[in-house]
Write a structure and sequence with these properties.
- This is UDPglucose 6-dehydrogenase.
- One of its GO terms (molecular function) is NAD binding.
- Residues 18-66 form the UDP-glucose/GDP-mannose dehydrogenase N-terminal domain.
- It catalyses: UDP-alpha-D-glucose + 2 NAD(+) + H2O = UDP-alpha-D-glucuronate + 2 NADH + 3 H(+).
- There is one protein chain.
- This protein has a two-stranded parallel ribbon.
- Strand 1 (18-22), helix 2 (28-38) and strand 2 (43-47) form a beta-alpha-beta unit.
- The chain has helices at 3-15, 28-38, 51-57, and strands at 18-22, 43-47.
- 47% of the residues lie in helices and 15% in strands.
- It has one domain (16-66).
- The chain is of the alpha+beta class.
Amino acid sequence: MCSVTLACSLRTLGMVSKICGIGAGYVGGCTLSVIAHHCPKIQVTVVDISENIIEQWNSDILPIYE
């Protein structure tokens, strides 16, 4: 990645205050949890068609299996 592209990306990231991800499965849930962890100033919201998955993410038993 060239420095110009990186500078534009960092400048754009500074303007982001909210992110909404669709899908809390193996990819979406993990990706958005990492974003939330590393970007505490950004409000991260995840939506999914499965209420069960959302309930698991909101509980102490996360739906991550390794």
